[in-house]
Amino acid sequence: MSAILDDLALLSVTGAADAFAKGEAKAEALVSACLARIDAHDVKVNSVIRLDREAALEAAQALDKARAAGEKPGPLAGVPMMHKDMYYRAGKVSTCGSKIRRDFKPSVTATVLQRLDAAGAIDMGTLNMAEFAQNPTGHNAHYGDCHNPWSLPYCTGGSSSGSGAGVAARFFACALGSDTGGSIRLPAGICGVTGIKGTQTRVPRTGVMPLSFSMDNVGPLTRTARDAARVMTVISGADGTDQTAAPESVPDYEAALTGDISGLRIAVPREWFFYKADDIVVKTFEAALEVLKARGATVDYVSAPSLAAIGTYTAVISRVEGATIHANWMREHPGDYAIHLSGRLFGGYAIPGHYYLEALSRRGPLLRQFCKEAMADYDIVATPTLRMRVPTLAETDIDKDAEANWARHMVVSANTRPFNYLGLPTVSIPVGFDDRGLPVGMQLSARPFGEAKALKVADAYQRDTDWHARVPTL
């Protein structure tokens, strides 16, 4: 691959969009660069399920012609993207990472894809994912496991495995993921990229495969906080076809990225998020806090309410709602599920209805308690994205060795799940590498609809560090 193509593939969302808008790069060249990088390296990473090569090049050529004719480009014009294979595009196969939907062609296009199209983004196809988005490590028995581009034997995090790995590998500038228990933030933290889960209901979910009615979130994985801000501005906001989408107006998230966080107060909850945490994770996280302090933020360690109940409530909700969504398939095609997923879904049928209702009813009170005790005088809650060092694929493959790997499997998402139950906007950014060269991530959470504040802190950190700019050697 030529140096010019390689350089174009390394451009971020804002870098690619701005280069196209200024006439410094053609959309066709941007797409060609990403396609060349996929051709050269995805045989090792296994991030792609469907590559729409010709359609992407045709869309890029149309953009180039429109720009040459004097049309004003959209905020994402020319930016190559691919998305988790659960975002429906009418007439295109969407497998949802499953055997059951291997040939499924939806009749609708997801609202978020329509918004990205309107902003000029170029969709190049779909990405590997955990089966039906129900796995925090990214294993997939049907399409093969996705590999971490920093070190191939290691997991990518899930369930948006191809999204995290592909953005890290510079196969495309942005990928949509979904986040029900951490499935955007885990691949972001484990693959060394930026990922954001907005406030529950911030982004419409029409045309997106459901996992849990109560906790599903749509969001991007990108290189930088600025990239995430631009994409979130495009995809957020009420949608007439999704009655759960919040009516709150959408700010210009990118405009909030001033770099000034002086006087901002950050809380670090002591208990849950550091339980048996690996020393290298804690040390790297604390070094990241020092960067924020140097920019004028105040950091305090605080006590937070017990989150053990939240872990239980999250499991109850996701299993009951997952079992409800999959009821017909579980009756008709039980053998078509991976072993771990079949066990998870069948378990949902054994949970009494009053447990499910209790889990739902406690969300409001526990959110108020968390905001009162952990965020009372603070703007942001900061935590490690993952307590442990990145595990290998073998260490987290519960289909092959459930007894040995189940505990580690659950610890992977221990720090991300609470923010789904609480519905709080949370961004994960890379803050360093461990002793084996694998990424370490930090989560920044804000009050409901405080995405701009979380992104502002993330961007301020990235102005003084270069972890997000480092590229794995493939």
TrEMBL record:
PROSITE patterns: AMIDASES. Transmembrane segments: none annotated. Residues 30-453 form the Amidase domain. InterPro entries: Amidase, Amidase_CS, Amidase_dom, AS_sf. PANTHER family: AMIDASE AMID-RELATED, TRANSAMIDASE. This is Amidase. It comes from Roseomonas alba.
